[in-house]
Amino acid sequence: MRLLLVEDSQRLQRSLTLGLKQAGYAVDVTGDGRDALWRASTVSYDVIILDIMIPSLDGLGVLRELRKTGKDTHVLLLTAKDTVEDRVKGLQEGADDYLIKPFSFDELLARVQALCRRSYVKKSPEIKIGDLTLISTKQMLLCRGKNVELLPREFRLLQLLLLRQGEVVSRSDIEAHLYDDQAEIMSNAIDSTVSLLRKKLIAAGSRTLIQTKRGFGYSVS
Question: Is the pTM of this model over 0.85?
Answer without folding.
Answer: no
